[in-house]
Amino acid sequence: MRYLRHITISLFVLALGATVQAQGPVQVVDKKALTLDGAKKVIAAAAAEARKNNAGGVIAIVDDGGNLMALERLEGTFAAGANIAIGKARTAALFKRPTKAFEDVIKNGRTAMVALNDFTPLQGGVPIVVDGQVIGAVGVSGANSAQQDEDFAVAAANSLKMGGPTHASMAGGPASAITYLDREKVATAFAKGMSLLEVEGYKVHASRRTDPGVVEVHLWETDVVYVLEGSATLVTGGTIVDPKTIAPGEIRGPSVIGGESRRIAKGDVIVIPQTVPQWFKEVTGPLLYFVVKPISMDGDGK
Question: Rounded distance, CA 40 to CA 230, Å?
Fold first, then answer.
């Protein structure tokens, strides 16, 4: 009897071990993570939106645990914006919701929420979601309005989503796979004016303008522009006035001396080589244009 009991216990232990072994993989999940290069791409998208709208701002990127990964303060932005932007990003990441939701809740009377520790319920923090997973968040502070803070943060957060499902596009690495963007994603990109894809070697932008811009010089990017809607007066060439380097390979200025002025409209294509100044001097309408940007692979333009 004791022998049979021993066999029964042994079989039970073996069966339990087999069950645990079979269930082992279930206890480990695969998850996406935001890389440093990916965080830099998100900052670049927000900074591009700010400059396009002649606004300042501080952009903070955190991982899904709320840990700071990257921070940039655009020229002229008040210093306190850095801590505010970090707080917005942390709040959006840890609660997995845009910070505007909490600002609205408090406005509607639930003031007890302000007692939470490490909590910044101010509009301008947005989670970064890829394939349904929150991989981090972006916080923006110091733009021209709270709404602009959020608009820039949304555009930045969507820059990875628009880049497609591959890890390479998330991190800004080489384009090693086919990228398919359905019409809804493209329409969303044009509605906001944002990047569709940025990888090593080229960028694809769904651009939108409602106002004139500053003069831009891209030292490493050629712009292939196809106008979808609206019209504009575009000045190319000439000598940029009061040029300022605002990022590696990127120069801006208020106007140009000389240059060639032309009216561009729906259906037009124009190719602007790298180093050539370009200035959307007048804009009619919303101007929607598709831009493919081959990037020079020489020197720092890699």
Answer: 32
- Alpha helices by DSSP H, listed for 59-128, are 81-95, 99-107
Per the CB < 8 A criterion, the answer to whether 96 and 62 are in contact is no
Report the pLDDT value the prediction gives residue 256, as an integer from 0 to 100.
93
Which is nearest to 147 in space by CA: 122, 127, 131, 124? 124
Say if residue 231's pLDDT is above 80.
Answer: yes
Structure tokens at 222: 């050629």
- Going by C-alpha positions, the residue among 270, 164, 165, 285 that lies closest to residue 227 is 270
pLDDT computed for residue 263 by the predictor = 97
Q: Where are the domains of the chain?
A: 36-175, 206-301
Angle at the Cα of 147 (from 103 to 138), degrees rounded to 5?
Answer: 75
DSSP annotation of 114 reads G
Is 188 in contact with 260 (CB distance < 8 Å)?
Answer: no
CATH number belonging to domain 206-301: 2.60.120.10
- Average pLDDT over the chain reads 83
Number of neighbouring beta carbons within 10 Å of residue 94: 17
36-175: CATH topology is Beta-Lactamase (3.30.450)
Nearest to 205 by CA among 221, 218, 193: 193
Number of residues written out for the chain: 302
For 270-282, give the DSSP string. Answer: EEE-TT--EEEEE
Rg (CA), the chain: 24
How far is the C-alpha of 144 from the C-alpha of 128, rounded, in Å?
A: 23
- Phi, psi of 235, rounded to the nearest 5 degrees: -105, 125
Mean pLDDT for 63-89 is: 93
256-257 vs 239-240, strand pairing mode:
antiparallel
